[in-house]
Design goal:
Blueprint (H helix, E strand, L loop, with lengths): L1 H26 L3 E5 L1 H4 L33 H7 L7 E16 L2 E8 L2 E8 H4 L10 E2 L2 E9 L10 E11 L2 E5 L3 H28 L1
Parallel strand pairs: 4-7
Antiparallel strand pairs: 1-8, 2-3, 2-6, 3-4, 5-8, 6-7
Helix pairs in contact: 1-5
């Protein structure tokens, strides 16, 4: 009878260890890099958004558009500060997160590139072009945006933003599959073995003390 109780205790401890270990594994699993192959075929090239703004533009004329070959990275756009304020800039980035309704037929869309992100104010029609938004399970569409950069937007409570004049999808996003980090699986297996060993040790100690 005592042996059965010890076995049950060991099993209970193993299950408890499993319940503790598995959520952590699932929450912190490393991406396997696997993607949907048919969707990935539509993803062409690397659009890093590198380049510089055309500083020869007349900053008093927001209708002047920087040539499309003169892309500026989002990080460079933000760090440019007052130097770029009011300019019509051209940049690209991955759509991340959910759109936010801005009212009056407009939405806020966040674009991300190389560690930096910026909010883009665009029409519902432009936002409707987006098919994938970046998340844990998806690579977002890459957009090329032409729009007016505001360091301190007078229309939106002083926010840093870009009011899009044109939006083009230059690369479609795709689903991303994730797999378990085998290193963490081995750790979980070791914890299970340790839990079983501790359960058996506890049972034997109880038997000796009787």
């Amino acid at each position: 009878m005592a042996r059965k109780r010890g076995i049950r205790l060991a099993i209970a401890l193993m299950l408890a260890a499993l319940c503790i270990a598995l959520p952590g594994l699932l929450a912190y699993a490393e991406p396997s890099g696997a993607i949907d192959e048919s969707a990935a075929e539509e993803y062409k090239g690397d659009f890093s958004g590198t380049g510089t703004a055309d500083t020869s533009l007349d900053t008093t004329n927001p209708d002047t558009v920087i040539d499309a070959d003169e892309n500026i990275a989002i990080e460079g756009l933000i760090s440019g500060g007052s130097h770029l304020n009011g300019l019509v800039v051209v940049f690209d980035g991955e759509v991340i997160g959910n759109d936010v309704n801005a009212g009056d037929g407009y939405k806020w869309v966040t674009l991300y590139d190389d560690g930096a992100s910026i909010a883009v104010y665009m029409s519902d029609a432009d936002a409707a072009k987006i098919t994938h938004r970046g998340s844990y399970s998806s690579q977002g569409d890459t957009l090329k945006v032409v729009g007016v950069f505001h360091l301190d937007c007078p229309s939106h409570q002083g926010d840093v933003d870009v009011h899009a004049q044109s939006v083009e999808v230059i690369s479609n996003g795709f689903p991303v599959a994730h797999g378990l980090d085998m290193h963490k699986v081995y750790i979980a297996a070791g914890l299970l073995v340790l839990a079983g060993a501790l359960g058996l040790l506890y049972w034997r100690l109880r038997e000796r003390l009787r």
